Request: fold
Amino acid sequence: MSRPEIFQTVHEPRPDPQSLTSNPSSTGSGVDYEPHPEKSIQIPLERERIVTSITNLYSGSASEEDMRVYAAEAVYDDPWSYCDTRYKIAGQWYGIPKVMASSRTLATEIVSNTPTELVFKLQQEYTPRVLHLSKAVDSLVSLTLDEEGKVKYHKDMWNDKDYSHEGLGKVMKTLNGDHLTKITRPPGDL
Reply:
């Protein structure tokens, strides 16, 4: 088994969007990724710090301190990219200030907390540099944690469908993850 296959088999979170986010009044699939902070479950302080670091990164912090929430060998997986080291993940986060005039977290809601996994709804507002039109995006963020409390696998789901790790989509996601660091140039010691 290859390293990516091991990560996907052992560490990839596979949350059930219907059970974690269902809202009978929502249309379509019944999945509701809009955060309702008042419904957030309580989590320990060390877990709150993880969520804060992750939301700081979504908001363009691109700080080494926030990046240290990830294990050195970690995976970031969203519809656009697949990164299999902390350095490649940093390439994604260091790119946000380059393409976005602003990115800010509007709300979060913790929906699951187990010893090895933390799942929350995220509402992030993005304003691209080119268009300057703000758009709020809701997603379900799932983090698998190692025994030291570091993020081992970060999955950002934008709809109720899980990601395929095959075919052309996988090739495009991997190319993005492998080569974005050449443009964003995160610190080499990450």
In short: The chain has a mean pLDDT of 84. The chain has seven helices and six strands. Residues 72 and 185 are 17 Å apart (CA to CA).
